[in-house]
Amino acid sequence: MGLVKSEGIVLKAGRLRETSKIVNLYTDRFGKLTVVAKGALKPGSRFGADLEVCNHILAVIYRREGKEIDYLSSTDILNDFPKTKAELPKWTAACGACELVDKATSGEEAQAQLFASLLGTLKGIEYSTSGRVAVHFWHFVLRLLEILGYRPDFSSCVKCRKRAEEDEVLFSAADGGLVCRNCSIEAEFYHKLSRSTAGKVSLLQKRRSENLFRINLTRSEKEEIRRVLPAFWKYHLGDKLDLKSFEFMEKMAGDRVR
Ligand SMILES: [Zn+2]
Fold first, then answer.
1. d(CA 125, ligand 1 centre) in Å
2. What was the pLDDT predicted at 72?
3. pLDDT of res. 245
4. 184 CA distance to ligand 1 centroid (A)?
5. Residues 6+ apart with CB under 8 A from 158
6. pLDDT of residue 258
7. Gap from CA of 178 to ligand 1 centroid (Å)
8. How far apart are CA 231 and CA 27, in angstroms?
9. Structural domains of the chain, with CATH
10. In terms of Cα–Cα distance, which of 2, 59, 49 is closest to 25?
11. Is residue 199 scored above 60 in pLDDT?
């Protein structure tokens, strides 16, 4: 405890009393921390604009033994993602990714992997065209699910392991993947999706965030993913996620694919 240094990504920032900020940071060394930046809202504050949501910073934090809230001592900006902040679809996707991490993680479970994945996604969004942000966003949702212990199977039937061959396949949130016609049960609810969408999701699961440039999603693929992944998330993670986080995808589903 005492003064520690860590990279962090600002997940959420709010006002605390008159002149301070309270910030949720996802750090590479300590997982999620809630920190207070005293005087951050005063003119000429040493924190400047470092504590905006999505910013990647180097933080010196005063950690207090046994306390839920720590104090931010100083910050340096590492990435402030100017292109993301200038384009609404990018900004919404980046904030959506930060919001998911904020809601899906609690306290300290140091996950260097999650930190790296969120940072990779923010960089991917920054350097992509706005028509491709959905690729980066859904890739991140799949990575986050995997880190949390869920990897829905989009390539073969979860019951008999047969590979999906029909043009239209069935997805079960409860069973955690595709279910073939033979194994499907009449009374169960399934999401119908095209095999091409299932194939794209499966591909996204295999790729690293810096390796997504060849993957494009058509409008209908985006729409299907937007129905299926939030349903899966909600089924397994329940109240941890408000579906509002995904609402912007509705608008983005109509975006031109570039
Ligand atoms: Zn089957």
1. 37
2. 96
3. 53
4. 7
5. 172, 175, 176, 177, 178, 179
6. 36
7. 8
8. 29
9. 2-79 (2.40.50.140), 82-252 (1.20.1440.120)
10. 59
11. yes
Whether 40 and 49 have beta carbons less than 8 Å apart is answered as: no
Rounded CA gap, 219 and 230, in Å? 17
Q: What is the ipTM of this complex?
A: 0.99
Tens digits of residue pLDDT in 218-249: 999 999 998 899 889 889 987 655 545 556 55
CA of 164 to the centre of ligand 1 (A): 9
Give CA–CA dist 105/109, Å, rounded: 8
CA of 144 to the centre of ligand 1 (A): 27
Q: Where are the alpha helices (DSSP H) in 131-237?
A: 133-147, 195-206, 219-237
pLDDT at residue 155, as a whole number: 95
Residue 257: pLDDT band (50, 70, 90) is: very low
Tokens of 227: 């129905």
Element holding 121 (H helix, E strand) = helix 112-127
Distances (CA, A) of 164 to 13, 138, 156, 245: 44, 21, 5, 30
C-alpha–C-alpha distance, residues 35 and 238, integer Å: 27
Show the tokens assigned to 220: 């209908």
